[in-house]
């Protein structure tokens, strides 16, 4: 526990000032986080970041993460992000032939999905910050409240397993408790912030985000169980890897936009 607390304090001391400051330092931070998360995900399948498919994934990820103000770079090249992604798939498939199927079609699918999964989540991290700092803190606090509520309420009252095949310690009571805690945080945001939403609208959106945040956590748990990995990485002592810390938010940030909250 002591190690977890020390790591959390150091990480927050680096993360929060850059998020608050915004601009290019924040974009660089996002690129670093996304690159490490991609490395962690590829490594689950024994794919190296510094390899031909790994570097293709990394380049496409970086292109995918380009903020709106830098879209002119792609426009000058007469290409879109989707076209770069399609080109990457062709290169992946070509590499299966070059390696005589040591890099398989399954590896192509995994690399493509890994890049989209990480890229989509962290792209909307940038988009959420551009919409306003209040939305970043809203997303962070409702996920922290969900995680804390699910943990403590689950330990105190949990009797019915939520999804034991994927995450044996999670309970239905904890799942519901996490949602309730997230809703309480949403009410505080209505009272004390200038977030642009009505109480009913924000409560409904918060319930959905809390649910999908927990689904995001289960998705990563399923990946780790499938590939027999305890943590996605070791970069955050006591917490695991970047993907371990951002798995819920990779679902929440895109949904903030899909639900038209921003």
Features:
262 residues, 74% helix, mainly alpha
Overall average residue pLDDT:
93
Query: Helicity level, as a percent range?
Result: over 70%
Parts with pLDDT < 50 across at least 5 consecutive residues: none
Strand content range: under 5%
Q: How many beta-strand segments?
A: 2
| C-alpha geometry | globular
Main β sheet profile: 2 strands, antiparallel
The side-by-side strand order for the widest beta sheet comes to 1-2
Structural class: mainly alpha
Question: What would you say this structure looks like, in words?
Answer:
It catalyses: a 1,2-diacyl-sn-glycero-3-phosphate + CTP + H(+) = a CDP-1,2-diacyl-sn-glycerol + diphosphate. Its EC number is 2.7.7.41. It comes from Cytobacillus spartinae. Keywords: Cell membrane, Lipid biosynthesis, Lipid metabolism, Membrane, Nucleotidyltransferase, Phospholipid biosynthesis, Phospholipid metabolism, Transferase, Transmembrane, Transmembrane helix. Pathway: Phospholipid metabolism; CDP-diacylglycerol biosynthesis; CDP-diacylglycerol from sn-glycerol 3-phosphate: step 3/3; Lipid metabolism. This protein is mainly alpha-helical. The chain has 2 domains: 1-131, no CATH class; 133-262, no CATH class. 74% of the residues lie in helices and 3% in strands. It has 11 helices and 2 strands, in the order αααααααββαααα. It has helices spanning 2-21, 23-44, 52-64, 71-76, 81-98, 105-131, 133-157, 172-192, 199-226, 242-246, 249-258, and strands spanning 161-163, 167-171. Strands 1-2 form a two-stranded antiparallel sheet. A hairpin with a 3-residue loop joins strand 1 and strand 2. Helix 3 runs antiparallel to helix 5 (81-98) and helix 6 packs across helix 11. The two termini are 36 Å apart.
């Amino acid at each position: 526990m002591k190690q977890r607390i020390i790591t959390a304090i150091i990480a927050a001391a680096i993360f929060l000032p850059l998020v608050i400051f915004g601009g290019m330092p924040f974009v660089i931070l996002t690129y670093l986080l996304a690159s490490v998360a991609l490395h962690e995900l590829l490594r689950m399948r024994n794919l190296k970041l510094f390899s031909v498919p790994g570097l293709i994934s990394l380049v496409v990820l970086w292109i995918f993460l380009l903020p709106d103000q830098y879209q002119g770079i792609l426009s000058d090249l007469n290409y879109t992000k989707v076209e770069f992604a399609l080109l990457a798939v062709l290169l992946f498939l070509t590499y299966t032939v070059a390696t005589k199927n040591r890099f398989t079609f399954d590896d192509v699918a995994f690399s493509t999905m890994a890049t989209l999964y990480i890229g989509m989540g962290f792209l909307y991290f940038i988009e959420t910050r551009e919409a306003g700092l209040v939305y970043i803190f809203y997303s962070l606090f409702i996920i922290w409240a969900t995680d804390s509520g699910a943990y403590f309420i689950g330990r105190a009252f949990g009797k019915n397993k939520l999804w034991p095949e994927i995450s044996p310690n999670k309970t239905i009571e904890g799942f519901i408790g996490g949602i309730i805690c997230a809703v309480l945080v949403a009410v505080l945001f209505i009272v004390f912030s200038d977030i642009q939403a009505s109480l009913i609208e924000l409560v409904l959106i918060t319930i959905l985000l809390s649910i999908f945040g927990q689904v995001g956590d289960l998705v990563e748990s399923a990946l780790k169980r499938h590939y027999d990995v305890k943590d996605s990485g070791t970069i955050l002592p006591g917490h695991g890897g970047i993907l371990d810390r951002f798995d819920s938010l990779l679902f929440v940030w895109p949904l903030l936009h899909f639900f038209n909250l921003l």
